[in-house]
Amino acid sequence: MNVLILHGPNLNMLEKRDPTYYGGLSQEDIFNHIVETYQHIDFTFYQTNHEGEMIDVIQQTQNVDAIIVNLGAWTHYAFAIRDALELTNKIIIDVHLSDLTKREAFRQINILEGLTKKTFMGEKLLSYTKAIDYCQTLLD
Ligand code: DQA
Predict the structure, then answer these.
(1) What residues does each domain of the chain span?
(2) Is residue 22 annotated as a catalytic residue, yes or no?
(3) Which of 7, 76, 96, 128 is catalytic?
(4) Contact assessment for residue 132 and residue 38, using Cβ atoms and an 8 Å cutoff
(5) Cα–Cα distance measured from residue 112 to residue 115, given in angstroms and rounded to the nearest whole number
(6) pLDDT grade, residue 67 (50/70/90)?
(7) Concatenated DSSP letters of 56-107
(8) pLDDT for residue 140 is more than 90
(9) Number of Cβ atoms within 10 Å of the Cβ of 93
(10) Which of 27, 46, 71, 102 has a Cα-to-Cα distance from 13 of 20 to 30 A?
(11) Is the domain covering 2-139 a CATH 3.10.310.30 domain?
């Protein structure tokens, strides 16, 4: 099983962001935990702060069974990224560390709605592991 995990803007600075929402973990902590926990899965991780670069990466995606995305703030407005993800015809799963339903109104708009198989949010690192577990149930 091959899974691509995509991180959007400011997720490379996670350890400096509000721990109430993000748990004080760094992106590396998350990626390392995933690799150690799921040794039987092949992961590719990619983070960028540049929307066009993210679209290029998505357009070049081949040979993956599923894409797990935390698009950061792009989740709320980046329609071009949604279009690029739609074009892949892959299983897309949406992940957030924080619970978007309990935050500002602008964070309650999720442009991936209807495209993603499921959203896991509000459980920090567990949001990721639950998304991967779910991915396995879809692909087994
Ligand atoms: C986030 C939530 C977004 O609203 C925010 O812009 C982020 C992180 C999360 O993981 O909770 O950068 O996607």
Answers:
(1) 2-139
(2) yes
(3) 96
(4) yes
(5) 5
(6) very high
(7) HHHHT--S-SEEEEE-GGGGGT-HHHHHHHHHHTSEEEEEESS-GGGS-GGG
(8) no
(9) 25
(10) 102
(11) no
